[in-house]
């Protein structure tokens, strides 16, 4: 889990910073959802990508009027039902949807806990995959796993970046580039690898 110091830093973020943190995690997790849609031939990827673009639009151009309440209602139709799919991929896709919901909460009815919830959801997604691959492990073995090391490093870098943001287009674009993470998700997969 993230160190208590990082958790404290997350709760100290403003609601705008929390929404950026959730968006950063969501962008990195997006390939998990999109690959799941491809795998089960679920045609939600275009709507999901459009929503992701709207979130960034709201960040880059704050004066743009976006009705996130209506977007949230539409998003409900994009959430997969785990009982309908006999495959592990539905769970990382669902985790992605949880972070979308954290982001909507930040934008519509912030409680101040959204960034922490998104952080734990992203990490839990990684831990679920490792449990599937390796079964039960000691805490030390888990912390030594490359995916966990990368996840914690990414979250820490994202937090550092958000705390230093000056609101300029350049710094926001740098945040988006960091979040895209060269198209590789928190589970170490990318849309390209899914097509090979």
Give a structural overview.
The structure is a single chain. It is globular and about 45 Å long. It is 71% helix and 0% strand. The longest helix has 25 residues, at 15-39. Helix 2 runs antiparallel to helix 5 and helix 2 runs antiparallel to helix 8. The protein has helices at residues 4-12, 15-39, 45-60, 68-75, 90-109, 114-134, 139-144, 146-164, 169-180, 191-194. It is mostly helical and 196 residues long. It starts with a helix and ends with a helix. The chain is built from ten helices and no strands.
Distance between the termini: 33 Å
Uncertain segments are none
- Outline: globular
**SS summary, helix count:** 10
What is the percentage of strand-forming residues?
A: under 5%
Key words describing this protein structure:
196 residues, mainly alpha, 10 helices, 71% helix, globular
């Amino acid at each position: 889990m993230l160190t208590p110091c990082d958790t404290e830093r997350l709760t100290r973020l403003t609601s705008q910073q929390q929404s950026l943190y959730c968006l950063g995690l969501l962008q990195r997790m997006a390939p998990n959802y999109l690959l799941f849609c491809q795998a089960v031939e679920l045609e939600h990827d275009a709507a999901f990508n459009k929503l992701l673009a709207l979130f960034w639009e709201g960040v880059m151009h704050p004066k743009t009027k976006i009705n996130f309440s209506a977007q949230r209602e539409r998003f409900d139709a994009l959430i997969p039902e785990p009982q309908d799919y006999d495959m592990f991929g539905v769970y990382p896709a669902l985790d992605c949807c949880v972070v979308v919901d954290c982001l909507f909460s930040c934008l519509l009815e912030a409680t101040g806990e959204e960034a922490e919830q998104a952080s734990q959801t992203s990490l839990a997604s990684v831990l679920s995959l490792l449990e599937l691959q390796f079964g039960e492990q000691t805490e030390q073995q888990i912390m030594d796993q490359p995916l966990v090391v990368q996840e914690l490093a990414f979250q820490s870098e994202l937090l550092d970046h958000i705390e230093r943001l000056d609101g300029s287009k350049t710094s926001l674009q740098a945040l988006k580039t960091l979040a895209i993470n060269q198209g590789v998700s928190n589970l170490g997969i990318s849309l390209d690898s899914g097509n090979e």
